[in-house]
Specification:
mainly alpha; Serine Threonine Protein Phosphatase 5, Tetratricopeptide repeat; two-stranded antiparallel ribbon; 20 helices; disordered N terminus
């Protein structure tokens, strides 16, 4: 996969709810009358080349000035909140594990809330720049609009699952966005579905650039399947997942476990090029021991380790171990590359394994147990396991959730979100850890944002 496919250029813009400016990587055009770090929106979208440069910036591996989740904090924090990881590196991180978060928590105030909003503003800027732009072909406007709608939907999907209702920002007009109340959860999901539904109409099956960096039609459909699953729209989720699986563009059976997260993986539906300072992708730097004998920053919990069946090759391939002071410590090992000069891995956003499990759960809810078991067994077979012996609907659903736990651990908050959406968080986490309450299912709104915007309200319990 080509790692640098366009010259990256950004507009320096202010953002609702976020203090500071977005930094510019490189000016596109030298305009002496402008400040040296500023390129106007009209110049930014003056032609197809400059427009594509702005689009490329949305996918840049640079949290706060590119793809918001490049730092891996969404995975870390939600895995700590669930039952996947534990840590002793900082009080801010420990608060997620112990359910003692405050509105001043550094991970919330510096990462989980502001970075998606900075990126949403960037997306909205591109959408505004291409809309009714006579300098761009209709086909290019259509393609870029669909892409940006998928990206925006991803941000709001994660925001609503972490915080509940959040401010809904779909414009770059600061006069409109300077003070906004929280939209309802239903309103956020309605926007997500509207974006993805429109993106379906605009995108084609062909990816618009090398690799699977920029969303295609099936990226939109796969994310829509996940959204419909969360909303309990079983038939829609089934149909959408079925469409992705039957597209023939992706594969699970032909991708070994140690190849899932590699650059160019045939399982990847959406896979962004990563270029970190200390590893290719931040998950490797976050989870792997930095040197022989070092204690990993985040350890896999006994709850996750005990979830793997005997002979499950995911335990062997995706969980690592190290010995420190004669004690064996376990860590997440899906991303294995700590050498930033060797670009072997990419940031996996959506993959076919998850889509199989979406179809499996939807099928089970529709009482299509044959299909549900077939999908579960597809995932189990790659892990070296025998077919599931589940027979009843309840048993099949339990088998699906088990596969989600051991297949999707430490990926995009899946376990944390699953426990919440299925109403099992209190029973599972209450039995495993202390301190869990219903209020812990939502993270606090940063106190600084409430002080800036008196229309914002805090989540219960904070």
């Amino acid at each position: 996969m080509k790692k640098i496919f366009f010259n990256i250029n950004k507009i320096i813009i202010g953002l609702l709810l976020v203090a500071g400016l977005l930094a510019s990587c490189k000016k596109l055009i030298e305009i002496p009358t402008n400040p040296p770090s500023f390129v106007s929106q009209q110049e930014e979208f003056a032609d197809s080349a400059s427009t594509i440069s702005a689009v490329a910036g949305v996918y840049t591996y640079n949290p706060g000035n590119g793809f918001a989740y490049s730092d891996g904090n969404l995975t870390i924090c939600t895995a700590l909140s669930a039952d996947e990881l534990t840590t002793s590196i900082s009080s801010d991180a420990q608060q997620f594990y112990t359910y003692t978060l405050t509105p001043l928590n550094g991970r919330v105030t510096s990462n989980l809330w502001p970075l998606p909003y900075q990126s949403i503003f960037q997306v909205n800027s591109v959408l505004s720049g291409v809309a009714n732009n006579s300098a761009l072909s209709a086909a290019l406007q259509k393609q870029i609009t669909g892409e940006m709608e998928v990206v925006r939907a991803l941000y709001y999907f994660n925001l609503v699952n972490m915080f509940g209702g959040v401010p809904l920002v779909t414009t770059t007009n600061y006069a409109v966005t300077a003070r906004l109340p929280r939209a309802t959860t239903a309103a956020i999901y309605a926007q997500i579905k509207a974006d993805l539904t429109d993106a379906e109409k605009k995108l084609t099956a062909a990816y618009p650039s090398s690799g699977h960096i920029r969303p295609n039609l099936y990226t939109a459909v796969a994310l829509l399947a996940k959204v419909d699953l969360y909303l309990g729209n079983w038939q829609s989720a089934y149909n959408e997942a079925n469409s992705v699986i039957n597209s023939g563009l992706y594969s699970v059976a032909n991708v070994p476990l140690n190849g899932v997260f590699l650059d160019g993986s045939n399982e990847a539906i959406w896979q962004l090029p990563a270029n970190g300072l200390y590893s290719v992708y931040s998950d490797a730097a976050n989870f792997l021991p930095q040197y022989s004998g070092a204690t990993p920053n985040y350890l896999v919990t006994p709850f996750l380790l005990n979830a793997f069946e005997a002979g499950d090759q995911r335990l062997q391939n995706w969980i690592g171990s190290t010995s420190v002071n004669n004690q064996t410590l376990y860590y997440a090992n899906k991303y294995k590359n700590l050498d930033p000069t060797v670009t072997t891995e990419d940031q996996m956003v959506l993959r076919l394994g998850e889509v199989y499990l979406i179809r499996a759960e939807a099928a089970a809810q529709l009482n299509n147990l044959t299909q549900a078991l077939a999908d579960v067994n597809t995932i189990r077979a790659r892990a070296g396991l025998a077919p599931s012996t589940a027979t009843s609907q309840a048993a099949v659903l339990s088998a699906v959730m088990h596969e989600r736990q051991v297949e999707l651990f430490c990926e995009w908050g899946n376990r944390w979100f699953d426990l919440k959406r299925t109403g099992t968080a209190a029973a599972v986490l209450g039995a495993e850890k202390t301190g869990f309450t219903a209020n812990a299912e939502l993270y606090p709104v940063p106190q600084a944002q409430i002080q800036l915007d008196n229309l914002l309200t805090q989540n219960p319990g904070y």
